[in-house]
Design a protein that fits this description.
The complex is a heterodimer. By secondary structure, chain A is mainly β. Chain A has no helices and 11 strands. Chain B starts with a strand and ends with a strand. Classes of the chains: A mainly beta, B mainly beta.
Chain lengths: 115, 114
């Protein structure tokens, strides 16, 4: 069925190190892949997204890569800071099957950045 | 200001007492969705709507109802709330032009059912 798998579920890094979160999706026709950050007690907010016609996108310390052949995309955070500590969700926009038109989320990754 | 507004933000109620959580967006978005969030379980989709009068079940629809009579509103109805529906609820909306619109979330509604 329609699915987005996200790994790892928890990630702990030292300040200044890099963090990588990976997601796979089941619908090969999916064309839009956003990442959301949710700080404690707040709503999820979009931090970066990528469309299927692009392989990589960067925004300062954050980057997302997409491998359409493998149906795999990743979030990369470099030079992590304590304020990067949050739960991160990946998502994919499904274009076929029972979830056509729906945005499906992964289960989230809790990132902890230790000072 | 573009926003998704949920009400109430906090509610304590008792088992069996019908309640409605309202959601309204001012961005003329076609797509709206409800999620519940419990500790360690991420965002679980309850219902979503692709446009007026079009609604579909998400992952956890049992015990909930929705309606989409107007484009801007997407209320979540709990006909007979039970304690296992105690949760944090988020409403969200996005435009569907080009299938790549950002999903905007409301601030959340924390519901406790005693």
């Amino acid at each position: 069925g329609e699915n987005v798998e996200q790994h790892p579920s928890t990630l702990s890094v030292q300040e200044g190190d890099s963090a990588v979160i990976k997601c796979t999706y089941s619908d090969s026709a999916s064309n839009y892949f956003p990442w959301y950050k949710q700080e404690l007690g707040k709503r999820p907010q979009l931090i970066i997204d990528i469309r299927s016609n692009v392989g990589e996108k960067k925004d300062q310390r954050i980057a997302v890569t997409l491998n359409k052949t493998a149906k795999h995309f990743s979030l990369h955070i470099t030079e992590t800071q304590p304020e990067d500590s949050a739960v991160y969700f990946c998502a994919a926009h499904f274009l076929t099957g029972g979830s056509q038109g729906n945005l499906i989320f992964g289960k989230g990754t809790k990132l902890s950045v230790k000072p | 200001e573009a926003q998704v507004t949920q009400n109430p933000r906090y509610l304590i109620t008792v088992t069996g007492k019908k309640l409605t959580v309202t959601c309204s967006q001012n961005m003329n978005h076609e797509y709206m969705s409800w999620y519940r969030q419990d500790p360690g379980l991420g965002l679980r989709q309850i219902y979503y709507s692709m446009n007026v009068e079009v609604t579909d079940k998400g992952d956890v629809p049992e015990g909930y109802k929705v309606s989409r009579k107007e484009k801007r509103n997407f209320p979540l109805i709990l006909e007979s709330p039970s304690p296992n529906q105690t949760s944090l609820y988020f409403c969200a909306s996005r435009g569907l032009a080009l299938n790549t619109g950002e999903l905007f979330f409301g601030e959340g509604s924390r519901l406790t059912v005693l």
